[in-house]
Each structure stands twice: as C-alpha cells, then as structure tokens.
C-alpha cells in the first residue's frame, strides 16, 4: 500500500513570518508578473512547498519576493493576456494543481 502523504495548510500574515517559518522550504509565489506558469514548475522533493499569495489589489512587490530564499514566481494561465484571476480563485487553482500532481506520482 502506498504511503499516504499528509498535507497541511498554515496561514501566515506577513512575509517575515513566512521567511522565519521554514527557511528551507521551496516558495512558489503567485503573481501576475510571474515568468513561468504554475504547471511548468517542478517542486523540489527534499523541500516543503510554500504557496505565497499577496493582497488582492497590489500583490507582493518584487523587492519583497526577492527576500524569499529558494523561490520562484509563477502565474496562472488566462485566456486573455494581461488579465488575472482574483486572489481566492488563484489560490484554489494553485492548491488543486499542486495536489493533483502530488497524487499522480
């Protein structure tokens, strides 16, 4: 029988809390300025994945994202270039995608 992987969701309210929570994690930051789509990113097997989303109106500034070690900025595909989903929709789609990939292994 395959080993069951446990998932947990922890909500942190600031970037400093995220950095200090688990600095050896692999951070995936969802932002409209992401250079790669989420489905193109391979998580690192020896690190926990931390999904980071910003505020609805202004997101997370690039200079703040640079403080996260082992991070990559991803975006979700949209049908119209320059458009984006709201934060909650983006978060739900990202959680679904990460869980789907985990279960397919």
Describe it:
By secondary structure, the chain is an alpha/beta fold. The protein has one domain (15-104): 3-Layer(aba) Sandwich (Alpha/beta knot), CATH 3.40.1280.10. 28% of the residues lie in helices and 16% in strands. The protein is built from 3 helices and 4 strands. The chain has helices at residues 15-21, 62-65, 87-104, and strands spanning 26-30, 36-37, 49-53, 71-75. A 4-stranded parallel beta sheet has the order 2-4-1-3. It is globular and about 35 Å long. The two termini are 14 Å apart. 13% of the residues are buried. The model has no long low-confidence stretch (mean pLDDT 80).
Work out the count of structural domains. 1
**Any idea of the CATH class?**
Alpha Beta
Number of DSSP strand runs: 4
Give the averaged pLDDT, no decimals.
Answer: 80
**Can you count the helices?**
3
- What are the secondary-structure elements, in order, as H or E? HEEEHEH
SSE order and pairing:
Blueprint lengths: L14 H7 L4 E5 L5 E2 L11 E5 L8 H4 L5 E5 L11 H18 L1
Parallel strand pairs: 1-3, 1-4, 2-4
Keyphrases for this structure?
3 helices; 28% helix; four-stranded parallel sheet; alpha/beta; 105 residues; 16% strand
């Amino acid at each position: 029988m395959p080993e069951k992987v446990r998932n947990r969701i922890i909500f942190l309210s600031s970037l400093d809390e995220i950095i200090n929570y688990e600095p050896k994690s692999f951070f995936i930051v969802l932002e409209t300025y992401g250079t790669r789509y989420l489905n193109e990113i391979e998580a690192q097997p020896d690190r926990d994945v931390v999904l980071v989303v910003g505020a609805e109106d202004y997101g997370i500034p690039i200079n703040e994202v640079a403080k996260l070690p082992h991070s990559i900025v991803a975006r979700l595909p949209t049908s119209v270039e320059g458009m984006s989903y709201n934060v909650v929709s983006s978060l739900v789609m990202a959680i679904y995608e990460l869980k789907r990939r985990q279960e397919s292994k």
